[in-house]
Write a sequence for this structure.
């Protein structure tokens, strides 16, 4: 009878009523082990980056560096164009984020709230660009950028990365979801369309804009193929491209290589850790799931 | 009222202008140009002659293109279903946890997703390093001797696939978690009252209700992985790329290494058609889901 | 001269006509309620006055000026919405000051005006909170404050109390009445709740399917409904209706053959009907008098099927030859289910409706 009563409890209730459930503990332990294995490569890169180059290639498994040192980091910063790459990555990613999000907010607002000729066509173009593989356009992006002499410039890197249809789609759906009374109240209060967008609709939920901005920033920072093609000049490379392009110049110096990798991933990793909730929100929104 | 209608159109024009300009220049124009280019024998930069369907005829007889299509398909098979299954498993485990502990564990699974591919490449290249890589302590005993995964052709694609799953799985995990959270608690409580076992709860409640999210993950992954390039390119650096070629890589090689823009555009059109076909399929699936 | 006037307005959505050639005049300083069931076009009418809906045909005037094509903000009308539509990202102060800020008023002017409005509505303590931190009643007051700050010529309310619970609704009703007394501004109030309309308004416009059914003071509508729709819509519990046949006429009064064989004399409002015509008789529950069954002066005998004790009154559902009639009696009535009672009509308070549903 007790056994039957036990199986009839939900997992939630079971946790509450019997905190020492063997199955739950085993599952919990398994989860922790899996998470540790999953995270290990990142941990190992961090650990290696704090070792000396000698210690990094020593036989045996030294999980933590014996004497943590920042030598690898200092070497990379001093002996590569990493400061330039950082600057390039920052300029291009911030520009892509600001322009793409601003553009998407304006376009999403117009498509959602205003009636104008070509509205349906525009919406279908956006849905189409959502389906199309932008990678297939690299050849033509390259030709266009070469013809207007924008290769090896920030603008040349930025322009093709501004195609972020998901941002427009998320904005349109957000504006669609707002009760029409907000719009009407603001209209009664004398607001015009621009004031409606920038003083009512966008500020009403900065969370969405923040989420989209962060995911756009991460995406821009991480893009590889186009910046790799557009910036042939080493001084114009982004971090993401740069750290592999100069792999050989570091020689067999794995601590330095890992220090470079850590530095390249740091801004996006930090952006995720700080804005975890927003990143989650952006991903569920872009997949069309109510989180 | 006519005045306000015209005003509305004017506002709309101002609001969509930057977007239309960028999309026209960076999406519509390149797409049309790509199709046009695919009928010429143009080099990467410079004019070419109209050669009709020659590029397309060449495409069907192209062995390397065949390899690229096969490798892309193989890669999709290796990543999409296994990756989604792993993500569901992880999401089920993580969803049992609560509070800060849950977000900590989730971060461990999700963090790789936000890293640049080159960082992922450097990390795994170091882990699997033939001489000093820590993973060789596992590979060595299994294979009998240390192995250079990236120079062993049969292991190349599975290797890239595993790393890709490690890298991109956070996305699917989040979707599954959101889906699991959307299942009403009352259903579990009702099932518990009916005396269902943990396995029955999963097969009768969780699985059917999470199925739409599963379809969503599968189709998103499918379309994402069809466009594979970065990982394959990076790990094959210095190797025999012809054997491990994937479709985007072939576009890249034809355009930027063989300097034949026209033929590269043809390959791009082929990729376009394939991805659009799958996207339309995805769109239909999502629409069916939305209609329910 | 009317303060707000609609002349022959028509509203069409595509081919669907919601309002057809309606004219309405609202006096300055009056509190007018637009009352009707959902879908009768009352909200559309209000939104046309506000300028939120285009007028397909016809004209709209506010304070003597034609505003048919004037943008909403410049009509001198302010609106309070059903769900308040407070901007969630702004504090109460910013919500109230929003229209001033849009109009480019200086910080000092904004603060001064917000201060005045806040004092009037007792919002002083809440000015730095956000809407999410307010109770339903407080939100309602902020929404009114937002309208008030614009010093409008006319206030428009779109079912402003329907999101509140019953207790608060009564309280807010009193506050609205007080507000109107102190401001004396024209107010137009849309509601489907006849109690709200009866208690607040000095004039009620009853709408039915896009046309005005009747306009009048609350008591006019209650005591002298112009048609069967108004008679049925106003009053709770609703008016009883049954069919009867005209037997003869005596000045203003008609004698009727009632179902069940007895006759009654009912005073008409001067209309004429042919003899032997069938009419609808309407009588409110409180105008049916209870007596012993079979009494000489009773018009129906019936069996009580349900008894509802409300304390201050008792509602009886009585099955009679004329169908089930609701009777309102005293609070401590000693009548049980199954009892047989006699009912008599009050001849001066009963209504006759012709086949066109208009009062006779």
């Amino acid at each position: 009878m007790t056994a039957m009563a036990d199986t009839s409890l939900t997992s939630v209730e079971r946790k509450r009523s019997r905190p020492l459930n063997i199955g739950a503990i085993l599952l919990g332990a398994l989860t922790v082990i899996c998470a540790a294995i999953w995270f290990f490569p990142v941990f190992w890169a961090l650990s290696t980056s704090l070792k000396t180059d000698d210690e990094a290639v020593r036989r045996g498994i030294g999980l933590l560096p014996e004497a943590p040192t920042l030598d690898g980091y200092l070497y990379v910063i001093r002996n590569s164009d990493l400061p330039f790459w950082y600057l390039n990555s920052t300029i291009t990613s911030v520009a892509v984020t600001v322009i793409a999000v601003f553009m998407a907010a304006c376009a999403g607002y117009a498509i959602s709230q205003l009636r104008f000729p070509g509205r349906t066509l525009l919406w279908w173009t956006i849905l189409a660009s959502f389906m199309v593989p932008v990678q297939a356009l690299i050849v033509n992006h390259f030709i266009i950028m070469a013809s207007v002499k924008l290769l090896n410039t920030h603008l040349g890197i930025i322009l093709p990365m501004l195609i972020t249809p998901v941002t427009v789609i998320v904005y349109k759906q957000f504006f669609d979801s707002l009760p029409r009374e907000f719009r009407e109240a603001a209209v009664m209060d004398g607001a015009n369309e621009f004031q409606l967008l920038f003083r009512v609709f966008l500020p009403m939920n900065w969370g969405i804009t923040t989420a989209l901005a962060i995911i756009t920033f991460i995406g821009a920072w991480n893009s590889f193929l186009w910046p790799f093609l557009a910036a042939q000049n080493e001084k114009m490379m982004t971090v993401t491209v740069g750290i592999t392009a100069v792999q050989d110049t570091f020689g067999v110096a794995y601590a330095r290589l890992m220090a470079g990798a850590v530095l390249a991933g740091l801004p996006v990793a930090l952006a995720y850790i700080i804005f975890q909730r927003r990143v989650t929100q952006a991903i569920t929104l872009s997949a069309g799931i109510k989180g | 009222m006519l005045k306000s209608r015209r005003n509305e159109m004017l506002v709309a024009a101002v609001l969509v202008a930057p977007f239309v300009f960028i999309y026209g220049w960076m999406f519509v124009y390149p797409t049309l140009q790509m199709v046009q280019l695919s009928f010429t024998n143009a080099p990467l930069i410079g004019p070419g002659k109209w050669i009709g369907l020659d590029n397309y005829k060449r495409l069907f007889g192209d062995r390397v293109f065949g390899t690229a299509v096969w490798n892309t398909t193989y890669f999709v098979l290796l990543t999409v279903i296994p990756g989604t299954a792993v993500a569901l498993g992880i999401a089920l485990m993580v969803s049992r946890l609560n509070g800060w502990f849950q977000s900590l564990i989730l971060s461990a699974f999700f963090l790789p997703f936000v890293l640049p591919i080159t960082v992922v490449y450097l990390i795994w290249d170091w882990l699997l390093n033939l001489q000093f890589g820590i993973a060789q302590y596992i590979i060595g005993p299994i294979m009998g001797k240390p192995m250079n995964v990236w120079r062993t052709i049969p292991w190349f694609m599975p290797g890239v696939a595993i790393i890709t799953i490690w890298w991109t799985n956070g996305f699917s995990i989040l979707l599954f978690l959101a889906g699991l959270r959307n299942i009403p608690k009352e259903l579990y409580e009702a099932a518990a009252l009916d005396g269902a076992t943990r396995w029955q709860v999963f097969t009768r409640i969780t699985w059917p209700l999470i199925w739409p999210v599963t379809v969503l993950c599968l189709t998103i992954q499918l379309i994402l992985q069809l466009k594979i390039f970065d990982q394959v390119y990076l790990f094959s650096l210095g190797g025999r790329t012809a054997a491990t070629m994937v479709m985007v890589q072939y576009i890249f090689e034809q355009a930027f290494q063989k300097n034949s823009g026209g033929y590269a555009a043809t390959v791009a059109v082929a990729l376009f058609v394939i991805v659009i076909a799958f996207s339309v399929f995805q769109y239909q699936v999502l629409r069916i889901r939305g209609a329910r | 001269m009317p303060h707000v006037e609609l002349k022959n307005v028509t509203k069409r959505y595509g081919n669907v006509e919601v309002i057809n050639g309606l004219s309405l005049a609202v006096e300055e300083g009056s509190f007018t309620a637009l009352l009707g069931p959902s879908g009768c076009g009352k909200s559309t009418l209000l939104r046309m006055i506000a300028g939120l809906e285009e007028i397909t045909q016809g004209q709209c005037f506010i304070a003597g000026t034609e505003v048919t094509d004037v943008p909403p903000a410049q009509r001198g009308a302010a609106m309070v919405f059903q769900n308040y539509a407070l901007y969630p990202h702004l504090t109460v102060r910013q919500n109230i000051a929003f229209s001033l800020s849009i109009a480019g008023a200086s910080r000092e002017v904004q603060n001064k005006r917000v201060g005045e409005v806040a004092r009037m509505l007792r919002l002083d303590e809440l000015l730095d909170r956000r809407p999410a931190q307010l109770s339903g009643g407080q939100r309602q007051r902020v929404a009114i404050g937002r309208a008030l700050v614009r010093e409008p010529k006319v206030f428009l309310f779109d079912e402003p109390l329907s999101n509140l619970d019953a207790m608060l609704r009564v309280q807010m009703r009193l506050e609205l009445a007080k507000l109107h007394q102190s401001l004396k501004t024209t107010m137009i109030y849309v509601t489907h709740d006849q109690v709200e309309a009866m208690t607040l308004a000095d004039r009620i416009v009853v709408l039915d399917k896009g046309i005005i059914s009747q306009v009048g003071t609350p008591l006019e509508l209650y005591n002298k409904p112009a048609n069967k729709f108004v008679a049925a819509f106003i009053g709770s519990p609703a008016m009883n209706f049954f069919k009867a046949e005209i037997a003869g006429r005596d000045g203003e009064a008609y004698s009727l053959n009632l179902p069940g064989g007895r006759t009654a004399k009912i005073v008409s409002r001067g209309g004429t009907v042919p003899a032997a015509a069938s009419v609808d008789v309407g009588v409110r529950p409180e105008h049916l008098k209870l007596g012993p069954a079979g009494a000489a002066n009773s018009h129906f005998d019936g069996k009580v099927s349900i008894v509802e004790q409300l304390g201050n009154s008792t509602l009886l559902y009585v099955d009679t030859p004329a169908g089930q009639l609701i009777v309102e009696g005293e609070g401590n009535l000693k009548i049980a289910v199954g009892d047989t009672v006699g009912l008599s009509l009050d001849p001066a308070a009963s209504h006759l409706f012709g086949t066109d549903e208009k009062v006779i």
